[in-house]
Amino acid sequence: MIMQNILETQSILDKHQAERTKCLVYTRVMGYHRPVESFNIGKKGEHKQRQHFTEK
What we know:
alpha+beta; 56 residues; two-stranded antiparallel sheet; extended
């Protein structure tokens, strides 16, 4: 099941490769916004582990 999803996703990505563009993700750090791309490896790991929620 998981492998099938991965293959389907890869197929979709390959099919639309020409339309894809790089996306910068910003996050708020110490009161200001910074691109996640500029984080060191430890900070990137912390960012991936964050739990996202939707306020009711």
